[in-house]
Prior knowledge:
Layout: H1 36-42, H2 50-54, H3 62-74, E1 78-83, E2 89-94, H4 96-100, H5 102-114, H6 116-137
Antiparallel strand pairs: 1-2
Amino acid sequence: MSEPQPVPPPEPLDPEMFDPVCPSPLVPFRIGDKWAPLILRCLEGGPRRFSELKVPLPGITSKSLTQSLRGLERDGFVVREEYERPERRVEYALTPLGRGLLGPLDAACAWTREHWDELIDAHEAGAAAGPASRAAKAGG
């Protein structure tokens, strides 16, 4: 009987894996907070350490990443695992429920790409109208 072979670590995350405008307020779909879908995508290839998750998310603060991870863990999408050996470390990984969100995320991203110009036009029109105009249309 041979000893189990150690699992090789996943490839490092690409610092350029996301568009510079991600996350965008134009995307009409929300899963968790604004960083949650990007974190889920980072974990798609396997468990990651906190510092690894920051690499492709240059705009995220440590506080925001911690809050997002806690929310994803609370909602059952991510599991936090602590290891003592060979070195003390913490890793985050997708749960089966979290992995199940990747397909809907792909569909939401495809829809957003398909309608990007319309989303920009609608956002600009709404911003140009201003809050007073929107309140009047809403009857307020």
